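Appendix B: complex inputs.
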Amino acid sequence: MSNVKESWKSIEGGVAAPKGFYAVGVQAGIKYEDKYDVALVFSQVQAQAAGVYTRNVVKAHPLHLTQSHLKNGLAQAIVINSGNANACVGKAGDQAALSMAQVVAMFMAVPAEDVLVASTGVIGVEMPIDRVLTGIRAASAELLGNMVKGIREPKETSNDGAHRAALAIMTTDTAVKERACELSCQGGVITLGGMAKGSGMIHPNMGTMLGFLTTDANIAAEELQRILREAVDESFNMVTVDGDTSTNDMVLFLANGASGMTLSGEDLFNFEKMVKSLCVQLAQDIVRDGEGASKFMEVTVSGAKTKEAARKIAKSICGSSLVKTALFGEDANWGRIFTAAGYAGAEFDPGLVDIFLGDLIVAQAGIGVAFSEEKAKEILSLRDVHIRLNLHLGEEHATAWGCDLTHEYVTINGSYRS
Amino acid sequence: MSNVKESWKSIEGGVAAPKGFYAVGVQAGIKYEDKYDVALVFSQVQAQAAGVYTRNVVKAHPLHLTQSHLKNGLAQAIVINSGNANACVGKAGDQAALSMAQVVAMFMAVPAEDVLVASTGVIGVEMPIDRVLTGIRAASAELLGNMVKGIREPKETSNDGAHRAALAIMTTDTAVKERACELSCQGGVITLGGMAKGSGMIHPNMGTMLGFLTTDANIAAEELQRILREAVDESFNMVTVDGDTSTNDMVLFLANGASGMTLSGEDLFNFEKMVKSLCVQLAQDIVRDGEGASKFMEVTVSGAKTKEAARKIAKSICGSSLVKTALFGEDANWGRIFTAAGYAGAEFDPGLVDIFLGDLIVAQAGIGVAFSEEKAKEILSLRDVHIRLNLHLGEEHATAWGCDLTHEYVTINGSYRS
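Resulting structure:
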């Protein structure tokens, strides 16, 4: 497995990069400004499909619909709107989500049960459903036209529909998040594409996080679900804490088999690695776009007795407002790091813990060591800061990602709804 | 019990208000500026004592010492320093805590085991122990002098030692937190005093929270422990979330019996109510002094199946950075309130929940209702905002307190250590 790192490579594009996938984004007027706000992702054939969802007790209307439509592990289209979360509005919300699926189904000539629906935006306000459906009709018509003409993007034309789709799922995001990569297998090339949205990063998990993955590999829904679950656990879930999720979070994965290849053995192993890697890239894109964030932090906890303990501690540190403000202030306040580890809900022996800022050790065996404040300042002044803890208890490790807490964050979130 | 509310009244003073208690605060030069930083609380006789402590895995050195000294339920003095947490510095930290107790013991002629120690400040930096001990000697000498002269404060002199003690336990606190009250019983008057510190309020629990209570009632340590535990659960723990605590948090309670009265029946019942009320007052004082806070929020969750569920949901809402920034922005974004309830880790039926801002209902049976934005703005523009949720599932309820998240918070915490 020495060539694991070289078995796949990043390429241009997003969800329409794999064979047989199409995507468009349109402006439906749901958001205040003239911005893209309806996205449609479509596979030319029915695809195997998997999904992971928010664990919030309060679930948005489209989430219920999508879960129900995914029961058979099959789907052909995903329709997404931004600007309104379609959450907590009662029967009208269920009806709105269903209508969105039905309009796609009608235009694209697929069963409504094969259409998945996702929304993101303000909670508790009824959808401007007329505008949403008009947008979906426009998106469907454009996508249908592209299919008839055999136009896939972005590689084949300058009319970058997939990029517009990635723009259309954004809310407070300031940067588009799309990724694609290729895996060379025995039988040829497998392509993987993805896009994501999310930026409410102080409690990483509270801003809605959406992710959509596509591949032209042939993978049964059950296998796809396992691969997605594992990838999400080490990527999106390390910025969006389990159990601390918004009402609308979901990650969906379609595999349409258009490459003609079914993976096994080392190819499957490498494919899983590639999916995990792409999810980590998208998760990092989300963190880097944290609301008002000026710095990026990667927290690695090693030497843990269990994976779960390592994950809890890494996430607790990334989520600590006092660690985040110290990062913003470029203050080597490792006591806050240690404190956040201590209340993570995982047992460890404080007397064994080493703490590093970059390569600089700041605490050894649970005790502060004399370190160069100048060196610490230098490390903390970088845009990317790596914090490491070694618990010296076992072999398990985990990595979480976060950003700093800034004045800008307060400004953005003090006036998001209005 | 119709006169429960009138059975006690607030009076001037703090920890030295009950009979037989003395307190002083001195400037020992631990903090950068010329501020009070060593406090000594003393009972003229050995007192029954109780304590509750942080649940953080990482515990400061004085905490271990105090727990050990409190095993027999007896204590006569509490010594506290601010400016240094005496945490995570190894054997030197244990020795520093012990030395603090020993110096008090020597001056005040009590066993070192009857001296309790608390610290607050920066973590991982060795105590400037010479300055601390010099401060303790000065405090002991002054207190001893007052005792000999029979001077108790603040009621009997203008030399307000208890007030200086309350000043000496502050870190980023901007206001002193001391309270006292009197209960009229069958045999006479029982007095209760208290002081507290804490203000790191974004994750309420991460800034160290200290509380010290004194009473001249005669109560056995076991009973005192139960009363303190119950009072803390409904007060300090509703701003300092269980399991999410700093390395140094503790609340101590001394009962010296100097009133000559042992409480029972209705008197005991009223005393417990008074202790709870004083703890709630101090907890609210802490929240109102939240770092950079401009608004105060009280969140009441009713209609819960269990007390635990009500507590979790109320605390989750108070701790949500998105709720806190919405409060700062005076934005009636009840979706964020509902979302924070949803990830609290308590089960409920979202379709039954009513949400109120003040008296204004903003969601009914889990669905947003049309409400006057003008009225909402008016409610949110007040300094005190009351958020209420009714889960319509049972009879249990709980109240938590929090504050908004402001630019000022980021400024304070970006530069606390340095």
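Residues 89 and 124 of chain A are 5 Å apart (CA to CA).
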